[in-house]
């Protein structure tokens, strides 16, 4: 059981809930804070004080006062009118992350929502009732209004959910679990939808996949080094310490460990003096991607525990301040940074693929073909990798440099962070397929060189990979192999894979 406090949620705990099916609950202290905040809202309503979102309309309607007899109607109208998401739904794991993150933010005690509503959100998480949330329609300020409105619909028994493998009306799933819909009170609709949880949830899931891919890319690259009789000297510790970047030093160290007992690597001058950059500069390029991913991780873990509501309630309601914590700019930048960092892993991977298949760049059979000419071998796999890399270059264009005014120019600068997070996720899927192609080609190359000469680490990885994709003995429909390898790379948990390798790491 993971206890949420609003302040201490980590990416590892997100992984536990999203992939290892751990349950969540709320700390008693955080629920007490939520209750005090709620009591402040009720005093504001009873005193008919003019406070944005509690006794007024929203956005450009912030100057329209709402009678206290209509506060329930105001919240219900807000959720229904703002549920304007379009397009395909977010992946279920992302929607579940969204619910979890919204509950965690509300537990900080600044939002004025009843503990009862937070309990309902936690029930959705624990019982895998996943809101159907369209991916498109958020500007990333004032928060992720449209996506989070679709989330909030479920609490009131409207909208749709994924439940037990089916897409169905929310009310049906709630009834099966004995969960009663709620009637939203003053400020509760606004508290549910004013935040960055869509872009952050998409970012969290993307980051977790990107982190695993970055590790896998190093092991795959190590196998490619063996397939090309790469020069190990370039990974010598002194070289990387001399520059001083920790992530570069660490990447080189992992590759040295993976290849420590390989008989397929060479020394400088043994076959050639220098390797091409796509081999020689792996620590510098992959290490730089790790630097960016570390930045992304830091920003996500801050945002996962951030109060992104508006207005925020302080000092038991004595201070109710309209600010802009819903603005997604920090995550928008982080997502754009992640796009570039992960895309670069595919850029350099595709160049290694080219070196594996191009007979002018190696001494292997042309295109790793079992019968060059009659059989095309991996020729078109490189085409596919090149197409994915090119597509990534378009997707990597920063979303955060764009803005467009909304709400009659009251909300005149927005982050586009949710678009950035979605594009980052698309890039990650493309990168995984490029790495899958490199893996297939690298396995074929080391097979030609001699599997018995491989390092223990890479040989174990090769053997596991061959369980997914057989050797190329004749041409076949390689798209099936690429998809199978990519799915394997997505589902294996890298820490467990490394733990299974024969040398302790």
Automatic annotation (TrEMBL):
| Alphabetical list of PROSITE patterns matching this protein | PAL_HISTIDASE
Xref: InterPro entries: Aromatic_Lyase (IPR001106), Fumarase/histidase_N (IPR024083), HutH (IPR005921), L-Aspartase-like (IPR008948), Phe/His_NH3-lyase_AS (IPR022313)
Tell me the pathway: Amino-acid degradation; L-histidine degradation into L-glutamate; N-formimidoyl-L-glutamate from L-histidine: step 1/3
Q: Which GO terms describe its biological process?
A: L-histidine catabolic process to glutamate and formamide; L-histidine catabolic process to glutamate and formate
Residues found modified as 2,3-didehydroalanine (Ser): 142
What GO MF annotations does this protein's record show? histidine ammonia-lyase activity
- How is the protein altered post-translationally, as described in the entry? Contains an active site 4-methylidene-imidazol-5-one (MIO), which is formed autocatalytically by cyclization and dehydration of residues Ala-Ser-Gly.
Q: Which Gene3D superfamilies match?
A: Fumarase/aspartase (Central domain), Fumarase/aspartase (N-terminal domain)
Q: Does the keyword Aminoacyl-tRNA synthetase apply?
A: no
Under Pfam families, the record lists: Lyase_aromatic (PF00221)
* CDD domains hit by this protein: PAL-HAL (cd00332)
Q: Where in the cell is it found?
A: Cytoplasm
Q: What is its EC number?
A: 4.3.1.3
Q: Give the similarity note.
A: Belongs to the PAL/histidase family.
Q: Which PANTHER family match?
A: HISTIDINE AMMONIA-LYASE
Q: What is this protein called?
A: Histidine ammonia-lyase
Q: Organism, per UniProt?
A: Neobacillus bataviensis LMG 21833
* Gene name in the database record: hutH
């Amino acid at each position: 059981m993971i206890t949420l406090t609003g302040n201490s949620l980590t990416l590892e705990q997100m992984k536990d809930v999203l992939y290892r099916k751990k349950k969540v609950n709320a700390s008693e202290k955080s629920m007490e804070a939520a209750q005090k905040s709620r009591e402040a809202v009720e005093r504001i309503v009873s005193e008919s004080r003019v406070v944005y979102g509690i006794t007024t309309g929203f956005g450009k309607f912030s100057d329209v006062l709402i009678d206290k007899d209509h506060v329930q109607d105001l919240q219900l109208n807000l959720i229904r009118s703002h549920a304007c998401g379009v397009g395909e739904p977010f992946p279920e794991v992302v929607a579940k992350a969204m619910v979890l993150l919204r509950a965690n933010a509300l537990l900080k005690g600044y939002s004025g929502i009843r503990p009862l509503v937070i309990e309902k959100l936690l029930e959705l998480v624990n019982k895998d009732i996943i809101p159907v949330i369209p991916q498109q329609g958020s500007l990333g300020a004032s928060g992720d209004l449209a996506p989070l409105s679709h989330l909030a619909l479920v609490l009131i028994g409207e909208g749709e959910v994924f439940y037990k493998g089916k897409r169905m009306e929310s009310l049906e799933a709630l009834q099966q679990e004995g969960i009663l819909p709620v009637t939203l009170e003053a400020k509760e609709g606004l508290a549910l939808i004013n935040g960055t949880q869509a872009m952050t949830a998409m970012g969290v899931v993307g980051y977790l996949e990107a982190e695993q891919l970055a590790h896998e890319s190093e092991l795959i690259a190590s196998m490619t080094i063996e397939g090309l009789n790469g020069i190990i000297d370039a990974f010598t510790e002194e070289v990387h310490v001399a520059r001083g970047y920790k992530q570069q030093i660490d990447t080189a160290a992992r590759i040295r460990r993976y290849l420590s007992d390989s008989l397929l690597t060479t020394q400088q001058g043994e076959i050639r003096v220098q390797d091409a950059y796509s081999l020689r500069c792996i620590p510098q390029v992959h290490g730089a991607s790790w630097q960016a991913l570390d930045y992304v991780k830091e920003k996500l873990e801050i945002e996962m525990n951030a109060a992104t509501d508006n207005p925020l309630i302080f000092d038991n309601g004595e201070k109710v301040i309209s600010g802009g914590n819903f603005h997604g700019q920090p995550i928008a930048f982080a997502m754009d940074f992640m796009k570039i960092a992960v895309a670069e892993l595919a850029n350099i991977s595709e160049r290694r693929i080219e070196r594996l298949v191009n007979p002018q760049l190696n001494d292997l059979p042309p295109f790793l073909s079992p019968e060059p000419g009659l059989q095309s071998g991996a020729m078109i796999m490189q085409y596919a990798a090149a197409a994915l890399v090119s597509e990534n270059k378009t997707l990597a264009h920063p979303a955060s440099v764009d803005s467009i005014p909304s709400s009659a120019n009251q909300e005149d600068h927005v982050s586009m962070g949710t678009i950035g997070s979605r594009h980052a996720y698309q890039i990650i899927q493309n990168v995984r397929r490029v790495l899958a192609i490199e893996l297939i080609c690298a396995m074929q190359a080391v097979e030609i060189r001699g599997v018995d000469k491989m390092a223990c680490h890479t040989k174990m990885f090769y053997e596991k990979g061959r369980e997914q994709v057989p050797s190329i003995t004749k041409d076949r429909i390689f798209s099936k192999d690429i998809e199978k390898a990519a799915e394997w790379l997505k589902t294996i948990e890298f820490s467990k894979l490394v733990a299974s390798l024969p040398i302790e790491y």
